[in-house]
Amino acid sequence: MTSDTVIAPEETDPELRKLYDGFTAAGLIPLWTEIGDLMPLSPQPEAVPHVWQWDTLLPLARRAGDLVPVGRGGERRAIALANPGLPGRPYATPNLWAAVQYLGPREVAPAHRHSQGAFRFILEGEGVWTVVNGDAVEMCPGDLLLTPSMHWHGHHHVGDEPMVWLDGLDIPLVHRLDAGFFEFGENGVSDRSTPSRSRNERLWGHPGLRPIAAPDSPNSPLMAYRWADTDDALTAQLELEDEGHPGVIEPGHAGIRFTNPATGRDALASLRTEMHRLRPGARTATRRTVGSSVWQVFRGSGTVTLDDRVIEVAEGDLIAVPSWCAMTIGAHTQLDLFTFNDAPVYEALNLGRTETTGSTRA
Question: What domain range includes position 345?
Answer without folding.
Answer: 224-357
